[in-house]
Amino acid sequence: MRAGPREKRKDKKKILVCRGHTAHTELRPDRSLSLFRSYLHLPQSATMPPKHYRPPGKKKEGNAAKYITRTKATRHLQVSLNTFRNLCILKGIYPRVPKKKFEGNHKTYYGIKDMTYLAHEPLLDTFRQIRAHEKKIKKAKARKNKEREERLCNRMPTYKLDRLILERYPTFVDALRDLDDCLTMVHLFASLPAVEGERIQVKRIHNCRRLSHEWQAYISRTHSLRKTFISVKGIYYQAEVQGQKITWLTPHALQQVLTDDVDFNIMLTFLEFYETLLKFVNFKLYHSINVKYPPILDPRLEALAAELYALFRYVATGSARRPAESKFVASIEEKKDSNEKMDTAESQSDLRLAQLQHQLPSNEPGALMQLLEDSNNADDEVDQDTIECKTLFKNLKFFLSREVPREALLFIIPAFGGVVSWEGEGAPFEETDEDIAYQIVDRPTQGHKFLSRHYVQPQWVFDCVNSRIIIPADEYMVGMVPPPHLSPFVDNEAEGYVPEYAEAIKQLQAAAKKNVMPLPDLDDQDLTDPQNLLAEGVMDRTHANEAAEERRKLQLLEKQYHDELKMEMSGITYSATLSNKKPDNTGSDEMQHKDEVMVPVSTEKDDEDDRAKLYMSRKKRGLYEAIEISNQRKKDKVALLKERKRKAAASKSG
Amino acid sequence: MAKEKYEESSSDEEVDSSSDEEVDSSSDEVEASPDEVESSSDEVEASSDDVESSEDESLSDNEKVEESDSSEDEVAPRNTVGDIPLVEWHKDEEHIGYDIKGRKIKKQPRKDKLASFIEGADDPKNWRKIYDEYNDEEIELTKDEIKIIQRVISGRTPHAEVNPYEDYVDWFEYEDKGHPLSNAPEPKRRFIPSKWEQKRVANLVRKIRAGLIKVSDQQKEEEHTAYLLWTDDTDSVENKKRGGYVPAPKPKLPGHEEGYNPPVEYIPTAQEINSYELMFEEDRPKFIPRRYLNYRSVPAYDKGVKESFDRCLDQYLCPRTRKKRINIDPESLKPKLPSRKDLRPYPTTCYLEYRGHMGPVNCISVDPSGQWLASASTDGTARVWEIETGRCLKIWEVGEVARQICWNPSPDRPILAVVLEYDVLLLNSGMADIDIQTKMKELLHISEPGATEDAGDSKSAVTWIQHEKHDGIRMKHFKAVSSIEWHFKGDYFTTVVPSGDSKAILVHQLSKKHSDKPFRKLPGIPVTAVFHPSKKKFFVATKKFVQVYDLSKAKRIQKLETGVREISSISIHPGGENLIVGSKEGKMCWFDLELSTRPYKTLKTHSKDITRVTFHRTYPLFASASDDCTAYVFHSTVYSDLNQNPLIVPLEILHGHKPEHGRGVLDCKYHPRQPWLFTAGADSTIKLYCH
Predict the structure, then answer these.
(1) What's the pLDDT tens digit per position in A362-400?
(2) Which residues of A touch B322 (CB under 8 A)?
(3) Do the interacting molecules here have an ipTM over 0.90?
(4) Residue A358 to residues A298, A355, A531, A538: CA-CA distances in angstroms?
(5) Count of alpha carbons within 13 Å of A425, Cβ hemisphere only?
(6) Going edge to edge, which strands form the sheet with B492-496?
(7) Residue B32 and residue B51: Cα distance in Å, rounded?
(8) Is B259 close to A484, i.e. CB distance below 8 A?
(9) Do B219 and A158 touch (CB under 8 A)?
(10) What is the pTM of this model?
(11) Measured at the alpha carbon of residue B581, what is the angle toward residues B575 and B583, in degrees to the nearest 5?
């Protein structure tokens, strides 16, 4: 998609370095000088025109007409570099690479069109106003005019970004497509310490928390979470919304490290845009499931920092009344003039529901189950994937211990149809509940154990979710070292290396599908065809291919042996066959096979390679070689993995 | 003041003092009033009504003071005639003037001088009396008045109690100022409300009421409201994104190695981690996988914020370009070549090896009949081999490094030309029947040594000498000879002396034993020179160009631009319209002389210098030999149809020679009739490749 990481990095460095810029050079000839010269009757050639001379009336052409350097752009827009940066961030404008860097290699170029687009932006004027306003405040402060300062501070010019969002993402799907960075950033800021006096306002951190919970509540409610992965950096989630795969990263629920080498102004500008974007996206999503936005939360749960749970309840109740409401809508639509009335009615009913919600006994699991079931029945038109996700933990009750990261699991388990509770106030059911099937613990030993439930480590949930089956909990018991946690984002077949545990899971999946383990001794015919094997689900693609390859080689050797026997019988000498040999591979298949067998395969192949390479154009040859190098690198990587694996196994056994 | 005087005139000291007090108090009052004004002016900003009332008070104070003054004034002057010369005008009148009601004021009866003198002498206060002409009366000055007069006379202030150096009291004070900016009285506009301000306020009120201006509370409320931004009609065409926008690429998804508990094989060993230290910082892996045994032991990721920040920087600082990701099978990039099977025969395998030379074989040459092979070597010998058996038939010990060897292309002149350092030997090969042998002996006999030497130059380029030892001719050149080439008829031949300037290229005639230098000046240092196989054309290769001369017109026809750095050898297609050039950078150029002066095709074949390129006489084949120990065999069909480009197909890569002192294959030649290729290597062997 773009330049490789190293190249990119260099480029950026360049940009960051060239902040202090060089003098502005104008290519136009000096008018006064020429006049002066004509007055004195001096010859025009007394001083040579500059190298890239452009006559006064002539327009710029080529790259110079399409691109502009950053310094010139800021001057053209009459803004400071900081304002320019903020504008670029908000408008989504990025530097371009002209074919020819006409002002030098070390400069940053922007498209002229982008700059005219910026010049017409009302935000530009707002930023100027803000700047002027800030000057006023500064002045008031310097004059110790507290009153005026306060008054001015309250009347800071504001701006809205909704128009920009619509401009950048004309359709909702566009916005969803670009939501990855937005979610990652919002989740990161949601986990930052909300301390007054830090570099970030507490208000914004709370806003981020709220937005991220709203998003999670929607994903969980619609069962659109697909993959999860605990990495060192945090927990990755992948959801599918309207056919778009959205991946985001949430940091671990620990104290975040704020480093000094980060310019928070830049991040906050991004965050400003992202907050607005996520707000509108959430609105649209809540609107699509008929829930009012912004949600009204149970203040008791909110106080207990269980916002997510509160949101679930809100969303569940919101969508539970959908069927009834749709009927209502249908009846209303007949008399179209009373649209407004319906709106008010809806809002009123919302409020009433929220009030009712408060009165509901929150500790009663039965009520909650009822609500969840209601919501489950509500939607009919969903794809297979969603149904699979929805039913994974169906009818299972989970309980989270104190030490387990509550927010992540509170998000994941309901997303896959499970019911979850936790240790603490406001939890829907207690630890002593007999129906709990799995208790998630993360401690060296578990004191008192209920026999009716499994005690598993958190990784079990993640692995189950990724493999879409309920994995036997034996290996994930308390105090054990769990099996390796594999990334669901890797296509093992494409990588060419399948970790051991991935195979084990595959077998479990196959078993779950067929409810029988495949027999190890299948007949020969089946083994030759990789497709058959794949269909059985026993072997993965790489292994199947390897097996088929071996098989084919064996067959070839056999055939050669038979052919030679035949030739001997008919009295053909070896030299004759040698002269008959056909050196190219483009002949009929049979001949090709014979060739491959006769001549040492490797040299023949190399020769053919070299021969073709000779005739390639330089560009194609370069491409070919690059592909070969990358393939080789991939192979080396796999070889390294296999080698490490072998060594590890040896050290374990030996 | 007048009143004071009036009272004083009829009162004693006590009264005086009391009046003094009165004056003081009144002046106090006067002094106090501006204070009041000032304080009230402070309040002006707060409320104008207040100001007015206080102003009234102060004004009334002032009036009182003035009234008292004016009443005093009215009593005092009785005469009202004004400032007229009384003495002159009223000298003869009975009256001195008029009082306020218009009645005449009678003149006092004049006392006679004596009476007045006596009166004056009796009265001790007489000296204090002054006659007031205007009112026609006598006034007695009081003590104080006298004092005042005395003080005035002596140049002091009239009143003793006046302090001329009194402290300055600012009667108008600004709140924050040290001193008043101006002494001007308060202007009126400060006390009445501004009309324009009133209008502006009215305007603002109207706007706030209309909702055009928002008060801060309202604004905050509105910030939080979201609405349905994307409706169904936002998908319309007009709302489409502007062209050329490239969305930022998504961040890379994590692999197995990024997990908190990756499989064992993804964790590098301690040794590998140490080896990372030796790498360049840019190549070093950014992330080293680690394994945590349980979830609770995973620490917070310290680079989380930094990485997020880097991503932000990437998004707005990095130029974005759409790059086509090619996901193709590399095999599909290879060109479709005609199958080699159809292009047979061509040399493929090594069939024979000719051994015997003790040093690198510099050059080989095949006799036109195709029976014999001649070779020249660094070991100082030239040999003739029988091709089919590999037997060495003849050896000439030339004593020097033999650089090149060349058979005469004419079948009835079996002569070998051997190039040594400065000499060219013309030897009778002896590979013919007796008739020809005798003819050759005659041909290679010089009766008079030095007779054919060209006399034109002071220093002759070539000297033809009889070689006694090998029974041939020795042509002694004035500088080192690099190459030799025969004309196809076998009488003429050319030698190249690269450092010979105007005598760099020489053409010799064997039958006349004559040498000639056809070029007065050459455009560069020549590398080789070749005769056209059928026409009267002559090719001279300099380092970068090939010059084509017409011998009959004695004129240059073409200059071929090879585009290579240094030409090493050239060869001409038997048809005469095509030419290949081998260069020292391993490139080979094919020229179509009819087509262009630029190469029709350039092939980068070898990794090292190309030493020799050669065409086959009859088969559509050509070959190149290089120092990288390989020889390439190519197929080349030249069509008689001018519209069709020549077909060039790489056929075979011949390996077999071993490198010696960085050199590989030094020469390659085709058999004149068979599709066989001979190669001479630096490993002192000659190889024959057959089909």
Answers:
(1) 333 333 334 444 444 444 456 777 888 888 888 889 999
(2) 1
(3) no
(4) 6, 5, 58, 52
(5) 7
(6) B483-486, B492-496, B505-509, B514-516
(7) 17
(8) yes
(9) yes
(10) 0.62
(11) 165
